[in-house]
Amino acid sequence: MKKILLFLFLIPSALLAQKTTLLKGIVKNSNKEVIEKVSIKYGNVGTTSDSKGKYTLRIPLNKKITVTFSHVSYNTLQKNIYVTNRNSIRFSPTLQTKTENLKEITVKDIRKESSGVTKISINKVKNTVGPNAGVENVLMTLPGVNNNNELSTQYNVRGGNFDENLVYVNGIQVYRPFLVRSGQQEGLSFINPNMVQNIDFSAGGFQAKYGDRLSSVLDITYRKPKEQSIAIDASLLGASATFEGLFLNNKLSAISSIRYRDNSLFVNSKQIETNFRPRFTDLQTFLSYKLSDKIHFNFLSNFSLNNYNYQPLTRRTRFGTVADPLELTVFYSGEEKNNYLTLFGAFSTEYKLNENLKFTATASRYNTQEEEYFDILAQYRLGEVDTNIGSEDFGDVQFSQGIGSQLNHARNDLDALITNLELKGSFKKASTQVDFGVKFQQENIKDRIREWEVIDSLGFSIRPPFHSSNNQPYEPFEGELTPFQNIRKDNTVEITRITSFAQFNQRSFWKDHEVFYNLGIRAHSWLVNGNGTTSTRKVIISPRGQFAIKPDWEKDMLFRISGGLYAQPPSYRELRDFNGAVSIDVKAQKSYHLVTGMDYSFNLWNRPFKLTSEAYYKNLSDVNSYTVDNVRIRYRADNVTKAYAYGFDFRLNGEFVPGSESWVSLGYLKTEENIDNNGYISRPSDQRIKFGILFQDYVPNLPNLKAYLNLVYNSGVPGGAPSYANPYNFQERLRDYRRADLGVSYIFVDTNKKIKNGWLSNFKELSAGLELFNIFDIQNAITNTWVRDVYTKTQFGIPNFMTGRVLNFKIAMKL
User: Dihedral angle at the C-alpha atoms of 385, 387, 388, 389, nearest 10 degrees?
Assistant: First the structure.
């Protein structure tokens, strides 16, 4: 009976097998990765793919069917199949990732826009190509921000100088070295882009919670890691390695990064032939420990060592006009050895009393130890170039109108120690927020200056300015031989500061219009002890305010206005005059700001765009005028100058290419100063026109191949006067600054492109590319070298050109 039942059961199966066959295959995506749990069916018959993407489906013979492959993450695929024999067939489809156009839901937090703060994406920082890759590199593309020195991370904002910008990292103010003279000496910026999470920048009219400077504020926040990873970047200019992770049951987050940079690639592209290898090293660590939901401890440290060994050999520069070209040839001997050691540590405690009130206490210390030693002899020849095309000596120097030498000597040492204790609080309830704080700061500076310069022309020593002239060889001179410049000073300065602020912020509605405003006030008291002399204690009060309204209009627009009194009590650099003497009674520079702006968000080509425009005016008093030589600022330290600055800025940013944000910037600036009532002249930072483009693109058929273009045009600034000269006699402008940098990179792995098999599966991110700096090899000048014509007593300003075209290779990975 059992055998009969088994026979009867097998008969339908055999009949069915004679009328069907098997469809087999493996389902993959466009990246050749297998797809699990794909639904494969025809009619009411179906199956699913396994973990290896394999499937088997029985289909009928001699019948046309449609097999459907579907998955929630991929586009559905249908395949028409007609089979006439019982041999199994194979079909391995490739499914495309599903892209759905959802109705756009935009959630905006416009509090930063209402306060005039520009928020910069960290991805922009990583992708922007430039000689100094980092946050400052992106700032140079913004309107109102200028810098004609690609080797420097310093920047001018709306007519201010380098010392007028505030920089914060995690709410702690950071500083730059005191003795740096040129951009190629600076090395690495304090801000490590590999550790950054948020970047906020304000070009003027900023809130009272920030410090006392005249121009801008850059507010950086380092991230708290949420996973363990190692990121490595390497190029011909240096390398960096960043480690981050969570420890102690995720209570301790740590991120640490070490960087190394070698600027030889850039320096070798300049006109001066050198034996030069500048090396810069930097190590930073940020730790955050969560003791409880209410108490957090944070620690930030930085160690930086810059070794600058410079041995110039020769230089050849042609300048002048086509009709009257001149050539400067210089032969050098000697060398320069500079060392900058920086140590920084900050410990802070965050205490959240309740949902509305929190406090932050911070103790920090910054120490810089700087050595500037050099003995460099420059022997020069200034000659007229033969412009006769038919001449055998065409292009050669045919007549020397100036021959001489210049010997520069320095043994300068500086040790600065800056200590800070600060307590800040914030009370927030509903749409109201009150911020307040108090800070104690002490600065101890020891400065030893031994610096002189001797200028010789045709064997006769040139007398210093404002001394009796030396008219040899036509008249005998029996006076004392005196260096052209000679500074010998020993300064010991201590500055004690107490600052405080209070700020009220409110968000409300006026009818159907959204309104934001804040009112704040700062107080700054300081006392200077210098070389055994004590100044009187000075106090400055700085009220500030901002107002913004977002009308309930169909068009997405925001209007704002801000202003107030901005004061800059002097730092040690501002207390020291041209001759190295310290004036302890220098007053705070003051500036009345008025800034108006508008943001207009709209769609163009069905993509989001935003136009930001601002107009500003600054009225400055008690100005401490200065001269600039490369990046070295030398102050008069006398407060006898008044000045003004005004202009407007525009920026249009959006997706010029779908999926990639780019922007175009345009700015106009005019700033002048009146030194001791001698009349208004252009300030050293009077850069009238600024135009910048930051553009990103990709190859449509190869979206992982991306290109980045960084283009900047700045009109020329006054060429600067020799430190001993009257600036009213030196108002000629340097040539316009023009520069274009191009980067091309291919992304092998990133968050949107994961590889599960092969050696690439070991990486979370991997990219490689080429960078071409100064594409058109334009000669940009940052300052002048002043050479004397012994016959006419004329001083020629020979432009010091910056870097030429440079090709760099880089690779970035994250494990």
Answer: 120
Instruction: Count the neighbouring beta carbons within 10 Å of the beta carbon of residue 265.
Output: 17
Whether 374 and 387 have beta carbons less than 8 Å apart is answered as no
Sheet of 196-202, strand order = 118-120, 196-202, 216-222, 165-169, 172-173
DSSP string, 488-516: EEEEEEEEEEEEEEEEEEEEEEETTEEEE
Residue 321: band (very low, low, confident or very high) from pLDDT cuts 50, 70, 90: low
Determine whether 676 is exposed, middle or buried from the number of CB atoms within 10 Å of its CB (0-12, 13-18, 19+). Answer: exposed
* Residue 143 near residue 150 (C-beta atoms within 8 A): no
> Residue 304 — very low, low, confident or very high, per pLDDT cuts 50/70/90?
very high
Q: Are 332 and 312 in contact (CB under 8 A)?
A: yes
List the single range of 7-11, 137-141, 317-321 with lowest mean pLDDT.
Answer: 7-11
Inter-residue contact 69 to 27 (CB < 8 Å): yes
Tokens of 544: 């500030």
The alpha helices in 175-317, defined as continuous H runs, are 183-186, 264-267
Residue 682 near residue 718, CB atoms below 8 Å: yes
- Is the per-residue pLDDT at 42 higher than 80? yes
Residue 279's Cα: distance from chain center in Å? Answer: 20
Give the pair of three-digit tokens for residue 560. Answer: 């704002």
Q: In angstroms, what CA-CA distances link 742 with 234, 696, 714? A: 18, 10, 18
Q: Which residue has the tokens 């390398």?
A: 239
Those residues with Cβ within 8 angstroms of residue 477's Cβ, 6 or more apart along the chain or in another chain? 470, 471
Confidence class for position 791, pLDDT limits 50, 70, 90: low
Whether the upstream peptide bond of residue 718 has omega within 30° of 0, thus cis, is: no
